């Protein structure tokens, strides 16, 4: 399994020990990690792309992060230093149907952000390994692999199509969202 890990560059002075703690927790699960923290994320770029944009470090950095997210099976973001770019990267991952774990020493963002691909957690040095291990287990487990056919009345399909457009997803994704909402609302 491939995991992309990132954290705020502007928060490095204040949070580097936490960034390292999360990185060690991810590595301890045995997954392959690509990250700006390791410096191996630029390896995702083709040599021709690197040559074309060699004088534009920001373009190289952003494209490597974008490719890292696209190629990863899951994404972990240390977000203690709240950063617009990290929020954008979390959204990119979610749009690519990647599970995203956003970790902060200050707050659990899953209390604010509701999405089946988003997991937030407030962590400390004692529970970070367990939180990361549970996330890796979750994100490596369930993949869409079972096809289910359903007959609907034309009016039902029309309703689903309108509701899906309103939510900004396709009909299949909308049905999956309804199932997840129903599952999360039940205490079985």
Structure description:
The chain is of the alpha/beta class. The protein is built from seven helices and five strands; from the N terminus they run E-H-E-H-H-E-H-E-E-H-H-H. A five-stranded parallel β-sheet has the order 2-1-3-4-5, with helices on both faces. Helix 1 (12-27) packs across helix 5 (128-141) and helix 6 (154-167) packs across helix 7 (171-185). The mean pLDDT is 89.
Secondary structure blueprint with pairings:
Layout: E1 2-7, H1 12-27, E2 32-34, H2 47-52, H3 57-71, E3 74-78, H4 84-95, E4 99-104, E5 118-122, H5 128-141, H6 154-167, H7 171-185
Parallel strand pairs: 1-2, 1-3, 3-4, 4-5
Give a quick set of tags describing it:
13% strand, 7 helices, 188 residues, alpha/beta, five-stranded parallel beta sheet
